[in-house]
Structures are given as C-alpha cells and as structure tokens.
Amino acid sequence: MTDETTLDHQRIVPGLTYADAPAAIDWLCRVFGFREIRRMEVGDGRIGNAALSFNGEQIMLASPFEEAGTSSPRDLPALHQQITVYVDDVDAHFAHARREGAHILAEPADQFWGARNYWVEDLEGHRWTFQQQLRDVPDEESAAEMLKIAGDEG
Fold first, then answer.
1. What span, in angstroms and rounded, lies between the C-alpha atoms of 71 and 94?
2. Tens digits of per-residue pLDDT, 61-99?
3. In sequence order, which residues have a C-beta less than 8 Å from that of residue 4 and are 6 or more positions away?
4. 57-62 and 47-54 beta bridge pairing
5. Beta strands 15-17 and 57-62, pairing class
6. DSSP letter for each residue of 14-75
7. 104 and 97 in contact (C-beta within 8 Å)?
8. CA distance 28 to 1
9. What CATH number is attached to the domain comprising 113?
C-alpha cells in the first residue's frame, strides 16, 4: 500500500469521452476556464488522451474508441454521470458560461447542504455542477432535508 503523503498528484482523475474531443478541449477551456496541459493525438483526428487542469485539479478526456467500448453522452440513452467542480465565485463563473452560450440547466441557487450552485450541460451532454461552499452544514441536517424532499416527491 502506498503512503498517501508521498504522492504529488491527484489520486482520482475523471475521464470523459467526446465525439469531437478537439472541439471539447477548446470549449471547456473557453467556457469553463480549464487549461490544456496535454494532448495526445492518434493521427486520424481522434484524441487518445488529453489532460485539462482547473485550479490544480485534472480531468482527462479522449475521443470514442469502439475497441475500448467508449461513447459520447450524445450516443447514450440517459445521463450516466455528473461532474462537480468547486469554484471561488459561482455567480461570476455562471455569468461567464452563460455569455459563452453554455446550455444552462439551472441558474445559481443556494442549496440546503450549504452550497450555492448551478447546473450546466457541455457541448456533448456531460452534466456539470459548479458550486461554491457558503457554509458548513452537519450531515444530519442535510440528511433530514433530503428525506423531506424525497417524501414530497414520493
């Protein structure tokens, strides 16, 4: 087992698939504020692996590879994941994404778990939530609120 204190990199890195990975890289950098740190092209227009950074955290992305069983969300029947990113000023991030034409799913709102967030879909259907933590809320309080909401829907 590795001693976590000796690692100098992120231990969990999400990997996303985009039908047009080069366009996705440009879009994520322009609209969400990511920075491209690596791009490995495979020679036929596809991206084998790319890494983007946001405030020191990374995501990886690639083109679909049938042989590996990967697809873009636009080719799937339902939402399969959501990425959460913490930002320092969620309202400013939202305003920028909206100006850039992002598909906003929900505008910024304060949430019972102590965050203010908004939901947005990227150019191929990956769902993102950007949030700013406003206050600490005990787990028991959040769980009680979730039960109330679930009771209202059921």
1. 28
2. 999 988 888 888 888 887 778 899 999 999 999 999 999
3. 11
4. antiparallel
5. parallel
6. -EEE-TTHHHHHHHIIIII--EEEEEEE-SSS-EEEEEEEETTEEEEEE---GGGT---GGG
7. yes
8. 35
9. 3.10.180.10
**What is the C-alpha to C-alpha distance for residues 136 and 100, in angstroms, rounded to an integer?**
32
End-to-end Cα spacing for the chain: 44
| pTM of structure | 0.81
**Domains: count for the chain:** 1
Range of the domain at 111: 4-153
Locate 75 and state its tokens. 């080719």
What's the full length of the chain, in residues?
154
Q: Is 145 left (phi over 0), alpha (psi -120 to 50) or beta?
A: alpha
Encoded tokens for 53: 């950074």
